[in-house]
Amino acid sequence: MSLRGGPRTSADRLARLLNLVPYLLARPGIEIAEAAGDLGVTERQLREDLELLWVCGLPGYGPGDLIDMAFDGDRVTITYDAGIDRPLRLTPDEALALVVALRMLAETPGVANREAVERALAKIEDAAGDLVAAPVEVRLPGDAGRVAQLRAAVESGRALRITYYTAARDETTERVIDPLRVLMVGGRTYVEAWCRRAEAVRLFRADRIDAFAELAEPAVVPPQARPQDLSEGAFRPSPDLPLITLRIGRGERWITEYYPCERVESDGERWVVSMRVTDLGWARRFVLGLGPDVAVVAPVELAEQVRDTAVAALEAYATPIPAGADPAAAGGRQ
């Protein structure tokens, strides 16, 4: 497969980098233009790959640990390969971890070339022998039966009528969708499909599809519908989404690692964080669940919603329950 014009995914680039060192070792002094032509990439991409190789190597990551190379004009020679040309030797823990990872990959919905994964798994298990003889069962999170049913429905090539719960708006709707694929992102299974109601490609979480039925009509995906690039996750912030700004304490700094943030600034002991959200309803529930160490800076509308909801909750707790009344019927107040 040609990669001319640059890699399509990080996996493509990883595969190319792993092949690049033995390729260059067998051709010392090769011209970069010739190597780029053989590898099916542009000269610019090959130079970027070589720059990345310069910071790859063995633990320690100091002189004598990293891959090294020499340039003579437009020619390149590998002068230290960091052992990448040696046969791979795995410890028992490494072999077991690799087997578990491959078994997980083989069970992941939407994985292309599943047969190749299973062949690689069989070879590693055969080579490892007793190292991975202990029984290992891999199960993906969620309802495996439901995922299998959805996958079969998508593969049937028919349109689906689904009952779907949208958490951001806390509502359940019925939609007719034309499926594109079943895939896993961030440990969750999704059906990617053309939604006739939204007239756009949408992701539907499998665990939020309350019910579905195959229709007699075939799935008809419009020409403009294209699978989304989900390499960065299912949520893709865009300028048209609401921007919220929070002031958070030390205990809530995990937000900056878990959610894509547009701005993170230090404000003494606290941080000011700006991030895009699907809607303010979701943001209100998100902020209320964080606790007292978080304050809404903007927008004012969100701050008012959080304050009003918190006040209403406090007033509900302050209202006494009449003697003999059912606490559940009184809204759960105790």
UniProtKB/TrEMBL annotation:
Domain WYL span(s) in chain numbering: 147-211
Alphabetized UniProt keyword annotations: Proteasome
Keyword hit for Iron: no
Any one of the GO CC terms: proteasome complex
Top-level taxon of origin: Bacteria
Domain PafC HTH: 12-125
Residue ranges of every copy of the WCX domain listed in the record: 245-314
PANTHER family linked to this entry: PROTEIN PAFC, PTHR34580
Protein name according to UniProt: Proteasome accessory factor C
Native source organism of the sequence: Micromonospora phaseoli
